[in-house]
Amino acid sequence: MQKPEPIWQNLPFFFKSQVVENLDYKDRCCLRKCSKADLYLVNSSPNRLDSIAINTYENYSFLSWSDTGKTVYTVKYYKNYGESDLRLEFSAAPSVFIPTKNEKTIFKKTKILNNLDQKSDDMDQVLIDFSIALKKLTCKKTLIGDVILRGPHPTAHPEKTMEFRERLLNQMTSPVKAKWLFFKWGNEMNDVEEILKNFNSKILKKLEFSDRNAFWELSKIVKMEQWKKAEKVHLEVLSHLKIDDLLHFSEIQMHVRTLEESDFYRTIDPDLQRILGTFNVPIKDEPIRASTQVRTILERRINHTQRFPMPSPDLVLVVMIADKEVMGTVCRKDNVDEEAKVETGILRG
Amino acid sequence: MSVEPEVPIVQVEEVRENPVLYKIISSDNHVFTISEHAVKLSKTLWDLITNLGLTAENALDNPIPVENVNGKNMETIVQFCERHKYDEEEPEYTNYIREFVLPEWDRQLLSIDNEELFQLILATNYLDIQKLMDYCCRVIGDMAKDKTPEELRIIYGIPTDAEDDALERSASDSPGPSG
Prior knowledge:
Chain A has 349 residues and is of the alpha/beta class. Chain A has helices at 13-21, 25-31, 36-44, 122-134, 158-171, 189-197, 225-228, 261-267, 270-277, 293-299, 336-339, 344-348, and strands at residues 47-56, 61-66, 71-78, 86-94, 107-113, 137-144, 177-184, 206-215, 232-238, 251-254, 302-309, 315-322, 326-332. Chain A folds into three domains: 1-44, no CATH class; 45-266, no CATH class; 270-348, no CATH class. In chain A, 26% of the residues are buried. The model of chain A is unreliable at 149-155 (pLDDT under 50). Chain B is mainly alpha-helical. Chain B has one domain: Potassium Channel Kv1.1, Chain A (2-Layer Sandwich), CATH 3.30.710. Chain B has a three-stranded mixed sheet. Residues 1-16 of chain B have low confidence and may be disordered. At the A-B interface, helix 1, helix 2 and helix 3 of A face helix 4, helix 6, helix 7 and helix 8 of B.
């Protein structure tokens, strides 16, 4: 094979940086291994990812990322203390698997690296790679989890969990530019606060906390800029949040045990509140009594049904508020259950 | 300075809607005509035209010498600019370049050997044509796709650190002008 003319070495640095910026992440990783100069180049060039996730499991650690959101790459690291071999399982899969349309896995390969430090384990390796990925990172979505134990009767694994958390916190020193943070963590609020601090509040738009069945004391978190400036929140945790802590969000998904109707009304879009407010009616949820099974099912997605008087005493405006839709129908007062268009939003969508 | 065209490599086909044409002379005295819309893709050339006060009336009588770009590269650049002169502005960067697939016409245009591509990149950089820079980046980046570090060293001509150190050592061992 004829050796091509060298091109890379003499290109202007800023041009090479632009090339690196647009390389897929795995190609960046290969380039940074070529020489010291390329290591420096890659580390100093902006890194854009759609998503990145780190997690540790009982027997392995994993790092996954997606360059554009279409394909997700995953590396599983298997290594125990005292061993010198690291087994890497590298795979790629479409972010959305549609049977008959695409393959579940694009590729899967295994690589074994020998002669590594016996005093390190898979957690060391994944944390090193995660810290490399964080350099100059701008990301749409960051997922940070901790030790997940699988099995019918998972038992706690406090040592590994604590070590992972401590080391992850230690290495997250520069602000991460991520639009969305998905956080699967225990309910140690100091850790949550420390991690959140590392996210640039001007960029962070969505917070997603998950810790099923656990109670989170969020009083400190709601005072942070990262909370105040975020636009969407998804809480799969239990908490005693006040409604005032949520009013700035344009989208809220959370579990609530009790919520006053008046508080619910305050979470509705202010513009809609203003429109509804002009009618000067007491807030009252009066769901329709659907007459068919289909309409009953459709009606279940409605969070609030408010009835407004019309100039004609025979008519009433029925406004139904669902998660992401508001539907209004003018009905005859004595035939509301039939005429209120509970299926409108679905048909439109 | 007035230079007679040796070989008019590129003739702009038809510019009915915009009759303003400019003449550009490459470093090796090839003359090119380029339309106003096309020349605007080069920030350097457009700044020059604006500063020289060239107008529709006097543009063709005042060719613009570009001493840093030879005729071969200028030909490619003029073809590219004419091809893309009416393109809509690219959206603000998201994952635009990464997701974007180089159109076949442009891929053909940029299917040149590494040395020529290197010279074209320098010329594009000098003329400040962002779109062509992006496309060249794409071409260079595509060379790295799915390659191992060892393959990349060959494709890009990257010496290993050991080779680099050896080169550095031999340079420092050389007596040089200081004797």
